[in-house]
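Protocol step 4 of 5: obtain the predicted structure for the target chain.
Materials: sequence only (see below). No template structures provided, no constraints applied. The aim of this step is simply to have a reference model before the mutagenesis design in step 5. Sequence pasted as it appears in the construct record:
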Amino acid sequence: MALNRLIDAMTTLMLAEHDAETRFRLRAARGAGRRQRALEVLDQAAQGGDQSSVQSSGG
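Step 4 output (structure tokens):
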């Protein structure tokens, strides 16, 4: 019985890790080529952020 619990726990952790990596890779792919926009958003946040002062890049 203890072996079944161990295998179940390992399987759960492996699936969670796989899901996290998949989400990370998808988000990284969505953000590829948008470095300048990201830097603009960070600058805006650092200045207290008036959203109308930074134009959206539309993508």
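Step 4 remarks: Helices lie at 2-31, 35-46. The two ends are 52 Å apart (CA to CA).
Proceed to step 5.
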